[in-house]
Predict the 3D structure of the following.
Amino acid sequence: MTKLSPSLSRRSMMLKSGAAAIGAAVFPLFGNATTYMAVDEARTLLWGDEPMWPVEVVLTKAQRKSIKKASRTNVPKWPLKAWKTESGGWFIVEQIIGKHENIDVAFAINPDGSHKDLEVLVYRESYGHEVMNRKWRNQFKNRTHETVLKLDKDIVNISGATLSCVHLMKGVNRLLHTWDQVLRHL
């Protein structure tokens, strides 16, 4: 076995410690989650004390295809985490992709199918937290399935949070069309 010279050993140790420092600096960017509220807190904030019950909503392949065509966005295959309110409104918890990580969001849809409000539950990106701004989120209020929302036309883009803005907007579009085609009939 060849013995390393003292200078090579120091260099090797410096490279290893440098790599560890870089790893420590980079990986928190991808594991940086901020929890803003729990599902029950969001439900109370969006619907108060209104009674609601969970509803199992599993979309068929035909329904997913129809919603995708109408909303111009992909529809996941997994069941919706949905609750129906006594008045006929809906509370839905979804994961929306940000730039790299998922954003947990609670959506409220009024009994008439208009968007009531949304709350971000968990935001995992290291930037783009501006989507938490109430004024920005208020742009979605009272929107319906009758218009497919477009960024920079209907919804103002936030520089540095473009992908989060796009995906939250697509989530609202998709759920409003899901209400129109499926939820309103349940």
About this structure: The chain has a mean pLDDT of 86. The CA atoms of residues 37 and 121 lie 5 Å apart. The two ends are 74 Å apart (CA to CA). The beta strands are 34-35, 52-57, 80-85, 90-97, 102-109, 115-123.
